[in-house]
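Handout, section B. The chain below has 293 residues.
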Amino acid sequence: MRILLIGARGQVGQELQKTLPLQGTVEAVDRSHLDLTDVSRIRQVIREQTPDVIINAAAYTAVDKAEVEQTLANAINTVAPGVMAEEAQKLGAFLIHISTDYVFDGRKNTPYLEDDTPNPQGVYGESKLLGERQIQQTCERHAILRTAWVYGAKGKGNFVKTMLRLGADREELKVVMDQVGTPTWSFDIAQTIASMVGHANSEKPLQSGVYHFTNSGVASWYDFSIAIFEEARLIDIPLAIKSVMPITTAEYPLPASRPAYSVLSNQKLSATLNAVPEHWRHRLRKMLVELYS
């Protein structure tokens, strides 16, 4: 099986380079080889590789900057996936695309199901939702994997790395406590996608459609920060932090609105893959050990 991985240097992309080789021959490209604002280049790379599976792990993820960089966000999150879908359809390839909990407005108080009505509250979420729709309208064989609150040892920055950096320098931090979701380790996303690839070409192939995947459990950003510092101290990561103060979203205004509640239901994919995601706190612990080993 020939697999084309797009977004190879991102948090999930770097982990996918470890999990995908068991499924086939992987050609991994990053932004230095593939500018996702260049439609003709996207087509060229896919036609040259003629993959059986295309995995799009690339995205514009600067949630607040998207409010002023709408053209760029749409080029990467909407137009590029649509082009990938067109080329996948021509090849008969299976396209797996990573999306986000930010397609929802956060007004539920129970986990979001795949068929719940999206209602993004900002440019980033809107661009990701439009990318989903481009794929659904164009490519017969596809899986859209929505995930949330992604962190990992790889990649440039994420909430865990930010907290550890700030916690090493400051004695007090303020963290939002009225936004609730599920922290999700990028390695677990990569393992799940590898399983999806295996199912895509099995005797019982993966059905096209939208799937949700996160680790299990629920937390606020405040809860997450407390857990990061507690787990870090258990493995002797040096910290100066003495107190974390919970604040409301209103007390920490940002350009883009965030969903207050964006927990995703894992039920559909768990049943499909016959695997239940591990709790986010356990996976945070393992990631921190990896990060500091």
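Note. The longest strand covers residues 94-100. Compare this with the example in section A.
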